[in-house]
Amino acid sequence: MKKLYLRHSLLLTFLVFSLPSYGLILYQDKVGKSKNTLSYDRHTGEYLWQEGKKKTYFKRHRYRDVLKKATYLSANDYSKLKKSLIRHSRFEHSSAPTSEDLFLTALAMKEEAFSTLSPKVSDDCFRDRKKKKSAAPEFRFKPYMSEVKDEVGEALFKLKMNDEGFFSLGELTKLKVELMTSNDNFLHGMANEQNLGLVKNGKGIEGDDRGCTFAISTGVEAEFEKGGLALRSYSKGCSRLAPQKSYITIAGRPFEIEKRRDDKGRVYQEFISVDGLELEVKKTISGKVYGKVLARREVLDDQGGLAKVMQENWHSLSDKAVQYNYVDHMDKSVRYSSEVRLGTNFEVLKTENIRVAGNAEVGKNFTSGADDDNYLRAKATMKAQYLNENQRGEKFPSWEAKLVVQGKKYVDDVTDRSIRFDVTKRYSVTRNGYVFFTAGVSDDTDRLAVDYSQEEINRNGEMDLQHHLGGGFEYRW
């Protein structure tokens, strides 16, 4: 078995270095009149799966996605292709690593480095700390630690080796629990023709359930002197019309037609629900500069999910509301992502009763999913607050207006942007507690929303606005 594997490896080595970098054919077959080919380009580090004239590109570290294109193969052929693809990917990873490979390797080395940190702190160190505040604990490193330190960045090591550590955030200053909803229908459709009659369906500020039509999120945020922790859960739903093909017979001849409704009068639509859980850690680095690390788990489903269930139940409350037949158009999937951000706070104006301040952030999102979730982010936030006195005579933001502008650039060169404006009113209900209510509107060209809004864009030249409503409770120390 080892000899056979060695022979295959030598053959693969010969193929890689003897064929042109753009012409390595890894697999080829013919299904009907269509010719399927899998090739590899060493210049770009990408696999190319070609079905006839249709081409699909995959980054090398996403080779498992290539296998999804070959599910039609027999179990034996599929197994052979899988083994060859894994062997090739590993070989290329070692012989010609891409920038992604080098970055992931650096991160892995960083984790290994952190695990080997062993603080050696003597009693004298503690006794002398008051006298010599600049003295730092001595650390023992493995021989390769100095090289790793240069690779992964000085800042990460400073955070890790700081006396306080990354998660030492100081005293708790605020705890907030929040529930927010959004809808392309103003007041969740309560103002339309079927209810209050204030706006017309699909006209002006009233949406038509195309694109991203409903979202709900809840979260708990803890704010500390030197950072913060947050745990959020959210669900976002997007939909588009999906007429189904049918046939009728006229004068003995069949004709193909499109049916927009089923036999029960329900409108055919494709719906996707993105249900996620997000953990955020924020740490002040120095002065007004801070860093954030976020981790997410998201489930993408077209037959389940909180957003779909809530839309279905909400529409069922009224006989006048449109009812939908949810067409099965995708496989359920789970993706994991992490995001690293660097930001800074700034203050524009501060008087006795008015404060204007904001922050700016840049970040990079890494994902286990496809390129449509791998992006760079730039974000800016401005807040204008009117301060009032609480029951203890202390100032708190009674009114708050917030503007958030952000943009993303994905690895496949797609860009999107979001502009959101919210107004929040807080009420002092206890000596330290506040109830708040938020209303706002946003214009969001998220790529998922655009994908599900093509019909609306073609018809109106633009997408619906998103209307936000929510509230929560804050406790301030």
Features:
477 residues, alpha+beta, Lipocalin, 3 domains, four-stranded antiparallel beta sheet, 21 strands, 22% helix, 47% strand
What fold name stands as the CATH topology of the largest domain? Lipocalin
* Mean pLDDT score: 78
Under the CATH scheme, which architecture of the largest domain would be assigned? Answer: Beta Barrel
Q: Total number of β-strand segments?
A: 21
- Shape summary: flat
Amount of beta strand = over 45%
Gyration radius, to the nearest Å?
Answer: 28 Å
The order of strands across the largest sheet is: 7-8-9-12-13-15-16-17-18-19-20-21
Oligomerization state: single chain
Could you give me the name of the CATH homologous superfamily of the largest domain?
Outer membrane protein
Describe the protein:
The protein has 477 residues and is an alpha+beta fold. The protein folds into three domains: 2-95; 99-161, no CATH class; 172-476, Beta Barrel (Lipocalin), CATH 2.40.128.140. It contains ten helices and 21 strands. The protein has helices at residues 2-18, 63-67, 75-95, 99-116, 123-128, 145-152, 154-161, 306-316, 447-451, 454-460; strands at 24-31, 34-41, 46-51, 54-59, 118-120, 138-140, 172-183, 211-224, 227-241, 244-250, 253-259, 267-286, 289-301, 324-326, 333-350, 354-367, 375-389, 395-410, 415-428, 433-444, 466-476. The strands form four sheets. It has a twelve-stranded antiparallel beta barrel with strand order 7-8-9-12-13-15-16-17-18-19-20-21. The chain has a four-stranded antiparallel sheet with strand order 1-2-3-4. The longest helix has 21 residues, at 75-95. The radius of gyration is 28 Å and the shape is flat. 16% of the residues are buried. Mean pLDDT is 78; it is low at 1-22, 129-152 and 157-166.
